[in-house]
């Protein structure tokens, strides 16, 4: 077997998969917080494999496919298992179906991303909420919000179902979501506001010991939907204005 420099980013990708596998085992052992930490670790490896691939100039279609397969486990199956063990196991078959939604939506989103991929360059936007973001939104709710007193006990079943459904729908939607900005001068100058917002979210999450992760992820999910709605309304208004300015042709006097 010929060893190439592409093996380096692929090792980070496989580390992502290993952490996802370990997270599933932790969830099955009812260690929900440990499972969440391992999925967070998967996210770190997932970010690093792309950075390393660019540094070593070894980005490839094989790496993209491997990354998607690993993401399906770490950010699709693992969060679904966490959901099932943390809450939905008490609902029988309906619980299995509801808990599986992030995995099903995540795999569909990854498949769509792969068939629409036209370049290995970083994209500014994703079509549909990225699957790691969906995983972090669900996990932050399960770990920090659901066990707390922020939601009344009688509303908690409906709340976790609603979060699961909305995050799953966001992943398979066609809403444009911002890509994680790269910490480079060029990227910061190109999108300074997005960089500041992401940096504020990361710093706030660290100082709050994770309590602000879910509000930040909810803002990311809802903000993308609001921006999409505004863009659609502007496009519709522009179309109407354009149609109003088009003059009707003079009638032909020879037409009966």
Walk me through the structure:
The longest helix is centred in the C-terminal third of the chain and has 33 residues, at 213-245. The radius of gyration is 22 Å and the shape is globular. 72% of the residues lie in helices and 2% in strands. The protein contains nine helices and two strands, in the order H-H-H-H-E-H-H-E-H-H-H. The protein has helices at 7-28, 32-55, 61-86, 92-116, 131-145, 156-172, 185-190, 192-207, 213-245, and strands spanning 125-127, 176-178. Helix 5 runs antiparallel to helix 6. It has a single domain, classed as Up-down Bundle (Four Helix Bundle (Hemerythrin (Met), subunit A)), CATH 1.20.120. The protein has a two-stranded antiparallel sheet. With 256 residues, the chain is mostly helical.
For the biggest sheet, the summary is:
2 strands, antiparallel
CATH class: Mainly Alpha
| CATH topology-level name | Four Helix Bundle (Hemerythrin (Met), subunit A)
| Element pattern in H and E | HHHHEHHEHHH
- Globally, the shape reads globular
Radius of gyration from the alpha-carbon trace, in angstroms: 22 Å
Helix/sheet category = mainly alpha
Q: Provide the CATH superfamily.
A: CDP-alcohol phosphotransferase transmembrane (TM) domain
Cα-to-Cα separation, first versus last residue: 81 Å
Mean pLDDT equals: 85
Strand segment count:
2
The name of the CATH architecture is Up-down Bundle
Low-confidence stretches: none
How much strand content do the residues show? under 5%
Strand ordering within the main sheet:
1-2
Give the count of helical stretches: 9
The portion of residues assigned to helices is over 70%
């Amino acid at each position: 077997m010929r060893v190439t420099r592409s093996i380096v980013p692929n090792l980070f990708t496989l580390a992502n998969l290993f952490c996802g596998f370990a997270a599933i085992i932790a969830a099955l052992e009812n260690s929900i917080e440990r499972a969440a930490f391992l999925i967070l670790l998967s996210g770190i490896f997932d970010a690093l494999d792309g950075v390393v691939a660019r540094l070593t100039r070894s980005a490839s279609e094989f790496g993209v496919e491997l990354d998607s397969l690993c993401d399906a486990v770490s950010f699709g199956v693992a969060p679904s298992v966490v959901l099932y063990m943390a809450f939905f196991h008490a609902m029988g078959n309906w619980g299995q179906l509801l808990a599986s939604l992030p995995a099903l939506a995540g795999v569909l989103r990854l498949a769509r991303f792969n068939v629409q991929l036209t370049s290995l360059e970083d994209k500014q936007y994703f079509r549909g909420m990225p699957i790691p973001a969906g995983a972090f939104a669900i996990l932050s709710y399960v770990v920090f919000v659901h066990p707390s007193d922020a939601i009344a006990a009688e509303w908690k079943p409906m709340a976790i179902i609603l979060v699961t459904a909305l995050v799953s729908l966001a992943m398979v939607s066609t809403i444009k979501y911002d890509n994680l900005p790269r910490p480079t001068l060029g990227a910061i100058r190109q999108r300074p506001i997005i960089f500041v917002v992401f940096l504020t979210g990361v710093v706030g999450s660290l100082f709050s010991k994770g309590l602000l992760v879910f509000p930040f992820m909810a803002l990311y999910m809802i903000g993308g939907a609001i921006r999409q709605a505004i863009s659609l309304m502007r496009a519709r208004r522009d179309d109407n204005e354009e149609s109003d300015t088009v003059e009707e042709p003079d009638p032909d006097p020879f037409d009966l």
